[in-house]
Specification:
CATH topology: Ribosomal Protein L22, Chain A
Number of helices: 7
Distance between the termini: 15 Å
Number of domains: 1
Strand content: 15-25%
CATH class: Alpha Beta
Radius of gyration: 17 Å
Helix content: 25-40%
Order of helices and strands: EHHHEEEEEHHHHEEEE
Length: about 220
């Protein structure tokens, strides 16, 4: 796992923009600042990180997209699993040699009614967990932590976000999907240490243990 801040040294933006493919440049161009800068840093750094793992030029990496939009490496690198998430000024890139992987970064959302959101989407026990926070800040943190865990499982499976919301993830390292709607499970889930104001999680398909190594990428 690599963590990336968008406030990289001067000159990094142009270098990262140069490794993007045409589709990524088109998507970036449609965004206003500062979202365009964040997009270029996240996607460009992901290419550099993944290329470094594979010994491949980052600009030559190519993607295919699953039925729900999950990107997977194609060509000579098929079988190496990667995933990217970014929120606010933080991005995360996960690389797994043998198991499908999902990663999610969430910035604490200002002004969101997390009690109403959790009541709408989460199992009853998790609704109570969010509501049991000592103050509004803790309730937001609990909500975002659960959401990141669920979305990491969804991204590992390549499914739809709505399919992952009912998953019971609180306090669990191994998450199962009794409904079978998401598929690809069970999921080994771990919290990723990130700065205050964010939560992040990573999930691998399968019950076998995982070993997580986290590094910061400085450009």
């Amino acid at each position: 796992m690599w963590l990336i801040r968008s406030d990289l040294p001067s000159g990094a933006f142009a270098r990262l923009d140069a490794v993007l493919d045409a589709d990524e440049r088109r998507r970036a161009a449609a965004l206003a600042q500062p979202d365009r800068l964040r997009f270029v840093v996240a996607h460009g750094a992901a290419r550099v990180v993944i290329g470094g793992h594979l010994g491949a030029p980052p600009e030559q990496l190519r993607w295919a997209y699953g039925r729900h939009g999950k990107p997977e490496l194609t060509g000579a690198w098929t079988g190496v699993h990667v995933n990217l998430s970014h929120s606010g000024d933080l991005a995360a890139v996960a690389v797994s040699a043998g198991r499908a992987v999902g990663v999610d970064v969430q910035r604490h959302p200002p002004g969101t009614d997390v009690l109403a959101m959790s009541a709408r989407y989460f199992p009853d026990a998790e609704v109570a967990h969010v509501a049991g926070g000592a103050d509004p800040a803790e309730r937001v943190d609990r909500f975002v932590d659960l959401w990141a865990r669920k979305e990491a499982c969804v991204k590992a499976a390549g499914g739809k976000l709505a399919q992952g919301m009912p998953l019971a993830v609180h306090g669990r390292r191994l998450v199962r999907d009794p409904s079978g709607k998401l598929g690809g499970g069970p999921y080994r889930v771990a919290r990723v240490p990130v700065p205050a104001g964010y939560r992040a999680a990573v999930a691998l398909c399968g019950a076998a243990a995982m070993r997580l190594t986290t590094r910061w990428w400085d450009g």
